[in-house]
Amino acid sequence: MIPGGSAGVDSLAARILIDLIPKATDAYTMADLGMLAGLVRMVGQDFDRAAEVLTSDLEGTRAIFREAEPHIVDDNLKRRMAEVVASRPESLAIPVLNAHADIAMRVLIDLQATVENAADAGADWAAALDRRIWAFLDEYVAKRAYDSAF
Amino acid sequence: MTVRDDELKAGLGRFLSARWKATTTVEAVSRIPGGASRETWKCVAAVGDERRGVIVRIDPETSLIDTDRATEYRAIEAAWKSGLPAPEPLFLEHELEWIGRPFSITTEITGCQSSPDGIPLDHREALGRRKWRLLGQIARLEPLALGLGDVMPATSVETCAMEQLDYWAKVIADDEIHPNPVAEAAIRWLRRHPPPPAQKLSLVHGDYRTGNFLYTPDGDIKAILDWEMAHIGDPLEDLAWSLDPLWCWSEPERAGRLLPHGEAIALWEEGSGLRADATALRWWQVFASVKGIGIWISSSEDFQNGAAKAPILALAGWLMTDRQQRILVDYLSPNSGHKFYEVAA
Description:
The complex is a heterodimer. By secondary structure, chain A is mostly helical. Helices cover 77% and strands 0% of the residues of chain A. Chain A has helices spanning 6-20, 27-68, 75-86, 94-120, 124-142. The longest helix of chain A has 42 residues, at 27-68. Chain A starts with 5 loop residues before the first helix and ends in an 8-residue tail after the last helix. The model of chain A has no long low-confidence stretch (mean pLDDT 95). By secondary structure, chain B is of the alpha+beta class. Chain B has helices at 5-20, 69-81, 124-140, 160-175, 181-192, 235-242, 261-272, 278-305, 311-332; strands at 24-31, 39-47, 50-58, 89-93, 103-107, 202-204, 213-215, 221-224, 231-233, 254-255, 259-260. In chain B, the strands form 4 sheets. A 5-stranded antiparallel beta sheet of chain B has the order 1-2-3-5-4, with helices on both faces. A two-stranded antiparallel sheet of chain B has the order 6-9. Chain B has a two-stranded antiparallel sheet with strand order 7-8. In chain B, a hairpin with a 3-residue loop joins β10 and β11. Chain B starts with a helix and ends in a 13-residue tail after the last helix. The model of chain B has no long low-confidence stretch (mean pLDDT 92).
């Protein structure tokens, strides 16, 4: 394992910026190295947070699906929501978490479309649930934000 | 893999000798950083005692944007013939016999740069005024009268917005590696709030932003570049794209890091003779971010699954997707603090 996580990865980015870019012999290579350094820093940020981001996605969608369940009449959507609520990743490996989160996000997309239609039809519960989903999306985006100099 | 310097010199020398009907040698080539859709090379061609600077755009094995080279070339040609600042188009070559890939050649414009980071603070307002007046002039162009109807799909004032949305929604669906709940919410919003018909059909540049033109140190624009996404459509599409917060991330109050947004819109109206209807412009602003996500997702997909592993594809795919999603929740979430500029609808 990389000692220190993102700090170790950041050291690689610093090496590119401080030592390698000054030795580049043309503008194209210099630009490529600058982008590589930025990308390495982003990898470092994801190294530290990826498991937490994905597990919190799963927890957040499960909570929304439990809240939505009494209002949904589409049997197929209800079944898919119930499967996400009941599922547990077999491990904390990122590919496993990604696969679970992908399934949850596809169900969330379909649920929000259903909720929007219900809100348009005047269902009181739907407007509140739509705001709840948007609050999840606000957080979904915020926790993925990169701190980058670009 | 890129075209190698020696192969490029030899192949271009043969090509230019044939086209100019004079022995031509290519003395120097250097790749220009930044372009993600095609490889861009700066070359010096020697014809007798004369040295001619040319820019060569070469189709890549994989690119950020899948576009037709003829569309880009013909759009540059139309702009140049209309008197807009654009590089003079010289040749469009589809055959592989010269350098192994199709390419186009334009004249080099010297003494300029394109980086948004290099714009002198003293001149950024002058540059901004020029930028949005020029965009207004592009909006005045009549694409069919310019002969672009044979390289660009036909559309109508009623359908052009939804056709663009359909196109980019399909790009996202086809190329996404993971589902994108924010983009999907935005696409649904756009379908539920269709804009009014376009005031007219124009030549739409498709990627008009700071960074895609050549400017002089004193704030003049000498050439508008990167026409590969040009098409016929609603001129508000270009205005909205030019105002996208992605292009002024470090200074969100200045469109393109040049001018206050309201001033940019007023200059575009003056240059185009059109009105920036608030409802329509807001639709196109949300669309611009959906289109951006489509481009960035495609670049991620290219980086992950394609042959080319250019860092610019990963940078666009990873960082720009993050920022574009932040822009969309800022626009659409009921909980938004509305950090970014939105026209009052």
